[in-house]
What we know:
- The protein is α+β, with helices and mostly antiparallel strands and 159 residues long.
- It has four helices and ten strands, in the order αβββββαβββββαα.
- It has helices spanning 3-14, 71-74, 147-150, 154-158; strands at residues 16-24, 27-32, 36-41, 55-61, 64-70, 87-93, 96-102, 104-112, 131-137, 140-145.
- A five-stranded mixed sheet has the order 8-1-2-10-9. Strands 3-6-7-5-4 form a five-stranded mixed sheet.
- β9 (131-137) and β10 form a beta hairpin.
Amino acid sequence: MDETDQALCAAQAEKETELLSFIVGDQDYSVDIMSVREIRSASKATPLPRSPSYVLGVINLRGTVLPILDLSLRLGMDRSAELARNVIIVVAIGDKTLGLLVDAVSDILSVAADDLQPPPDMQADAENQFVSALTIFEDRMIRILDLDSVLPTMSEEAA
Length: 159
């Protein structure tokens, strides 16, 4: 590979985003793989009083208290079925780390920046506030989550 080919490959790699895709309900979602710290099997969370309904509680992750959010409830769907294959995706959002309970992890995707489309502007659809972009991969519509929006707001935490 000569220098021109290497430069072209480097430019193309900069325009691609790697995503971890997963299933919530019967829908495909993803997050930027750079925010993912680990994937672990689901474990029972210790409930916290007066927390929002989608906060299942906390678990001990190697000496750290990790809040667990049921992503199906956070996105306004029915509670995730208690399946043996449910997993927790541990993500870092700024200086916060939390676990997202999902039904299953699917793939790691490389998506070109040109293939990402903004979600339609539909304020009545509460789910859209959590979606930063959409892409089609192997005939599946994949929603890319805005992890900052998934975090509870101060008013939700106080409730």
